[in-house]
Design a protein that fits this description.
The protein is about 35% helix and about 15% strand. By secondary structure, it is of the alpha/beta class.
Amino acid sequence: METTKRTFPLRIDDNVAIWTEFKELTLRYNCLSLGEGAPGHNPPQFLVDNLVKAIEEGHNQYSRVMGIPELNKKIADVYGKKLGRDINWMTEIFVSAGANSAINSIILGIIDPKGGDEVVVFEPCFPQYQDHVQMANARYVPVPLDYKEGKWSFSKETFRAALNERTKILILNNAHNPTGKLFTLEELTTISAILKDFPNVIVLSDDVYEYLTYDGKHSIMFASLPDTFNKTVSVFSGGKLFSATGWKVGWAIGPADIINAASVISTTTIYCVNAPAQVAMGRCLGDVIETQRFKEEGVSYVQHTRKEFEIVRNYMIEELQRAPIDLELTPLPCESGFFVMVDISKAICKIPTRFLESHDYEILEEGQTPVSKNRVFIEGRVPYDLAFCRWMAVERGVIMMPNSLFYNKESPYRIDTLVRLSICKGYELSVWAVQRIKGKQKTE
C-alpha cells in the first residue's frame, strides 16, 4: 500500500528522527537522559488533588471545545493583568492539547493552503516549527541568532530583509529554546517597529517558558508592547507551568478572529481537551504563580521550580567548565528555560574517528541489530555535534541533543559545534550525568 506523500523534506532529521535514534541509544547503553524537556519531578500535590477532585465531581466527558469556562476565565484574569488589558474569555482564548498543538492550529488557521505565504523564524528553533510551516504549505524563512560577546542576538538588517509582502507569520519564542535567550525590551521594540512596515504579519509568540527565568530576570510578552495585541497570538503551556508535560494542556490568547480560525482547526483535529486536567489547572492557576505557601518555603510553586532549575544550571556550568583536560567544554550563559547550551569546539578533536566518519558507528555483537540512525550530513560529513552526542551516549552513557537539530537542513546558518543539555531533570540525576560526561563514572 502506498502511503501519503506529505513529508517534511526540510527537517534535518527527515529520514530517521534524531529523537528516535537517541531513545534507542538510551535503552541500549543504559543512558541518563539530558535530552528532552520533561521535568524530573512530579506536579505539585495541590494540582494532583484538584485533578482527582475534578474526576470525582464528574468532569469526565467532552468539554467546551475552546476550553472549560473555569479555566478560560482564570486565564483571562491572570494574563489580563500581565498584558494590562481585559481579555474576553469566550472569544480571545482557546485551550488546546498542549502548546505545540495550539501552534499548529494557529499556523493552519492563518496560512493560505494554496501556497505562497511565508513564515519567518529565528534559528536555532524548536524543530516542530518547521513541520507546522510545511504542513501548512508555507515557505520557512530563517533569521539567525548569533552568539557574540557572551549573548545571543540578531541583525536588524537581516531580520528586515527576511520580511516581504508574502510574510504572514513571525514565530517569536521568548524565553527561547534551545538557547535560553531572553529577548530584551529593546529587541522586542525593534521587532515591533520593523513590523509596522509589514502590517499583514501576525506574531505567533511562543511564551511557554514565561516563568522559567533566572538571575532575577523576567520574560517580556510581545503582546504587552503598545499596539501589538491585535497582531499577536500568544501561546502558553500548562504542562511546563505545572511540571505536567504529559497532561498536554496549553492555551492561546489573541484577537478573536484568529482565535476563532485556530479553534476551528483544533476542533477538527482534537475536538476538545482533557476535561479534568482543565478543571484542575483552572483551580490552581493563580496559586501556582502567586500563592506564597509552597512547601512552607514562603514562595510560590513557580518560584520554587525556578530556584531548583537555577541550582542545577549553576552546577552544570561550573562543573563543565572544570571538565578534564581531554574534554574541554564551554557552557554558554542561560537566562531561561529547560536547557543550557555547551560549546564543544575544543573537544571535537577528541571524538573517536568512527563517530566522525560514518553513521554506522556502533560496534555490534554477533546477531545484534543496530539502532535506527539519522543519516544527515553537513557539507558532506557527519555533523560534529551529532558525532559528539553519539559518542557521549555510547561510551559515557549520557543523552544530549545536537544543536544542528534546531535548524532546517537547507538553512545557511547551521551551527554544529554546540550541544543542548537539560537542566530540569533534578539535581541528583544531573550530578550523576555530569560525572559521566567527565568520564568519572562507568555506564553500568
